[in-house]
Amino acid sequence: MVFAGNTSLPRRQLGQFVRRQREANTSFTQEAVAKSMQWSHSRYARFERGEPGKVLDRDLVELGKILEIPDHEVAAMIELARQVAEKTWYNPYNDLIRANLDVYMRLETDARSMEIWRPDLVPGLLQTADYIGALNRIHFPKESEEEHDRRIELKMQRQNILTRKKSPVTVDLVLHECVLHTIVGSEAITAAQCRHLADMSTKPNISIRILPFKAGFPLGTPVGPFVILDFEPKTNGVAEPTVVYVENYPATCTLRNRRTSSCTGGRLRRSSTQRWMQWPAEHCCGR
């Protein structure tokens, strides 16, 4: 069996378990274990971090011997690795998914809750099909109608985590007010998008707050869009590490540790959300 493909929760769990075993049971450094495995240090470091890579069953058996891990726990490691090899729902769309977004999509699917800050656009999880299509035509002007339709299907399927029957993800979204006034595609499309946000904000697992213009310029270092993802604790009660996904111009990055507990401020009231989102919808439609 080959342990390959996208980063996922099982992969991260496996890397964390091996790191704890190495630190608790031995005095080995990462370099020492990598040398014993005949791996490069960078490859082993990526494995412990749960990043994409490739490892065989026999590699895990050998690693168990080096780190003195009991056989039954090695068997559990192998089973965990096999979970990663399973196909994901978005495999048919792999040709449309840019580098690193597959990492985020797997984390998104596994998340228990998400805190989102968008100063520019409505986040993909809450976009309407027409809003998605308008953005696609800006970013991918040379693609065919079929490819545009597939991109819409991909994003709409991502949104299923909000409405799935078993453990729908909890979303706490903060939007800058300018998002509601920025015309995407047409005034009608933007108005429909605002109404959709107002409707979605009534769901028990979705909170939407608006940062108004009058709040002024935010304090601290300006940042672009980001998402804070939290996960269900494991069966032994140990919590999975929080992940902060940051979007920026040259690339995207995923941070494993965070010092802030929330991206939402107490001054952003949920009660005013409907009013903020309905106003641009009504005025766009009235023109």
Mean pLDDT: 81
Number of helices: 11
Give the CA-CA distance, first to last residue.
Answer: 61 Å
Assign a percent range to the helix content: 40-55%
Summary keywords:
287 residues; alpha/beta; 6-stranded mixed sheet; two-stranded antiparallel ribbon; 11 helices; 8 strands; 13% strand
Q: Can you offer a commentary on this structure?
A:
The chain is 44% helix and 13% strand. It has 287 residues and is α/β, with parallel strands linked by helices. Strands 5-4-3-6-7-8 form a six-stranded mixed β-sheet. Helix 4 runs antiparallel to helix 5 and helix 7 (129-139) packs across helix 8. Mean pLDDT is 81; it is low at 1-7 and 258-268.
Task: Chart the SSEs and their pairings.
Blueprint (H helix, E strand, L loop, with lengths): L1 E2 L5 H17 L4 H8 L3 H9 L5 E2 H10 L4 H14 L16 H10 L2 E6 L10 H11 L5 H14 L11 E7 H5 L5 H14 L5 E6 L14 E5 L12 E5 L4 E4 L17 H13 L2
Parallel strand pairs: 3-4, 4-5
Antiparallel strand pairs: 1-2, 3-6, 6-7, 7-8
Helix pairs in contact: 1-3, 1-5, 2-3, 4-5, 7-8, 10-11
